[in-house]
Write a structure and sequence with these properties.
about 425 residues
């Protein structure tokens, strides 16, 4: 049974927006401000502009494909089955880890509403209910998943825009253009900051369920990420304009809302955070299982993962596995460790995908080249993207690589099991 193409332009845009804007912008401003101070808004903007080189490269890659899989297909077609599997597994792990990280942040924000949500039991119950509910909603159909994201998008973007509009009155020339641009530990700070921008690759994974994906996905990627970077700049600008420097380490956007509009402002931003994270979780549970499905479809993982539900036409087993893994990780880990781990794993997948572009260009049929969304400047933009990814990966620590290696070995076992089984048939 085939997947249905029920995702249009706005659905693709919702996927990009909710994949990127999640817990990051609610959890990171204070953490980044501790190191970057008044330069924080500009650091968010500069990193976003540099990160655009990666996004543009993925936009061209997506324009060659109309199948489910995204990064899996890019790496497989360029470097063979093992590279395709490794890239897909890395991206899946990144999305699954991000889901677990963001579920933890949702529990933290809910705990700020009432002491009822502040206990460890409540944290575990929240993570379990949210993960289980979103898993079931996506088993029921991709339309329900996209509708869920549409609702979350409205409920999180409007409060953030209101926060910016109310906070701009506090912006001065000194906060807009600070005299001191000194940034402590720029490598580690940037590695943590990119968590606010990653996740966009999810939309390429859903190409098999997207209408006219070669055109829809690149446009949705570029337009949505440009607007997101601009929104981040203004949010962080308001943050440093409202919050005293001494409070950066502990203050969140809820404190900004409280300073601007009292308890009502704090409540609105808290709900915005919950809905924002909910939208990101909905995007993850929509996109990540399709990676497992694609790996199984390409015979790079056991075929069990490639099952399509006979009634709902969704990759039900892959969705359930994703939900179960994210739940286990979310209940046992904290946000910062999960966020950094997710970024490192994802960057490795980005490197393989970016490096695949020259091969995919050369292998494309004349018709595919004609219709593809081509980057200007030859390979200048992909080279810049590669340099950025390698530099960011170099900022990671030894313990991050130990965790990545263990997860890669688990995936490699699944890959070898499928190859062994297929060889025996």
């Amino acid at each position: 049974m085939r997947l249905k193409r029920d995702i249009g332009f706005f659905g693709a845009a919702f996927i990009v927006l909710n994949s990127v804007i999640g817990a990051g912008i609610f959890a990171l401003p204070g953490k980044i401000a501790v190191s970057a101070g008044m330069a924080s808004p500009w650091l968010f903007l500069v990193v976003g502009i540099l990160f655009l080189s990666i996004i543009l490269t993925f936009a061209e890659l997506a324009s060659y494909y109309d199948q489910t899989g995204g990064p899996v297909l890019y790496a497989r077609d360029a470097f063979g089955p093992l590279a395709g599997f490794s890239t897909g597994w890395l991206i899946f792990l990144a999305r699954m880890t991000a889901f677990a990280a963001n579920a933890n942040v949702m529990a933290i924000y809910l705990a700020s509403l009432s002491d009822v949500f502040a206990s460890e039991f409540a944290r575990m119950a929240i993570i379990t209910l949210v993960t289980g509910g979103l898993t079931w909603a996506n088993v029921l159909g991709v339309k329900d998943g996209v509708r869920t994201m549409g609702v979350f998008t409205f409920l999180k973007v409007i409060p953030l825009l209101l926060l910016v509009l109310l906070g701009l009155q506090h912006v001065t020339g000194a906060t807009l253009v600070p005299a001191d641009f000194q940034i402590d530990n720029i490598g580690g700070t940037t590695l943590l900051l990119i968590y606010a921008y990653v996740g966009f690759e999810t939309v390429g994974v859903t190409a098999g369920e997207t209408s006219q994906p070669q055109r829809t996905i690149p446009i949705a990627l570029i337009r949505t990420l440009l607007l997101t970077g601009l929104l981040y700049f203004f949010i962080v600008l308001v943050y440093i304009s409202v919050i005293p420097a001494a409070d950066y380490a502990n203050a969140t956007l809820v404190d900004v809302g409280r300073s601007l509009a009292g308890p009502a402002g704090a409540l609105v931003i808290t709900f915005a955070a919950v809905f924002s994270i909910g939208g990101n979780l909905a995007s993850s549970i929509l996109g990540a299982p399709r990676i497992l499905f694609s790996l199984a479809e390409q015979r790079l993982m056991p075929q069990w993962f490639g099952n399509v539900h006979t009634k709902y036409a969704t990759p039900d087993r892959a969705i359930i596995v994703m939900g179960a893994m994210a739940l286990a990780l979310g209940l046992s880990s904290n946000f910062v460790d999960l966020a950094i781990g997710s970024s490192v794993v994802r960057l490795l997948g980005y490197i393989i995908c970016i490096a695949s572009l020259p091969v995919i260009r050369s292998k494309a049929t004349p018709e595919a080249r004609e219709s593809a969304w081509r980057l200007p400047g030859g390979f200048t933009i992909p080279v810049v993207a590669l340099v950025i990814c390698f530099w960011l990966v170099a900022q990671s620590k030894g313990e991050d690589w130990v965790k990545v290696s263990i997860l890669l070995v688990i995936g490699l076992v699944l890959y070898l099991v499928e190859k062994w089984y297929y060889a025996r048939k």
